[in-house]
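Appendix B. Chain record.
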Amino acid sequence: MIDLKGKTAVVFGLANKRSIAWAIAQKLNEAGAKVAICYQSERLKKEADALLPELNDAKSFQCDVSVDEEIERVTEELKAAYGTVDIVVHSVAFAPSDAIKNDFLLTKRDDFRVALDVSAYSLVAVARALEPLMSAGGSILTLTYYGAEKVFPNYNVMGVAKAALEATVRYLAASLGPKGIRVNAISAGPIKTLAARGIGDFNKILDTVTERAPLHRNVETAEVGNTAAFLLSPLASGITGEITYVDCGYNVTGM
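Structure tokens predicted for this chain:
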């Protein structure tokens, strides 16, 4: 059984109750952790606050991880509220819609920069800011996708951003390992989240996974949450710098 009693977990990237971030927050809460959920903007505050009663003694904080000043502010707020942090979940990704739907060759410089900044660099920024609060060590987890390794239709610049994110996981694991902080990623299979709406013909990807994955189905958010709880717990104390697939086995298939 996973026991996270006495631990404080910060979950960045909550969008709504269908998001992977929410599934992870629920599992961490079930394991006994105090959970702080961070939403991007005032527009998402109502959604986040409405979910708080479903968690035990949870708090919500606003933080746009593409803005250093907001990361600095939320770090001070977390320090004041909890003192220390043990677990950090980074469930954040964004690319301008044109950069996703248009041919990759047409990717604009600014759109490329934004995708890499929000989807990959923000993990570095968050880790650097919260590392001083992780004085007893801890664990950081981010979310990636198989499009980092293989070309998926209508994923385009986000695939490049996820590839950068996966490399970032490995380099951060090396940087933070001496401080007792582990850094890992989950490569989740396709899930109908708010972010997935921006990917054209997304249902075709879902159908392909159902057909070809060894389990012949798509993964559920709760299953990603279960794996996250394990990786963020002491049960995974020897695991860092890894990309763990939770995709019903789709990544192992060829034809």
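Further analysis of this model is presented in Appendix C.
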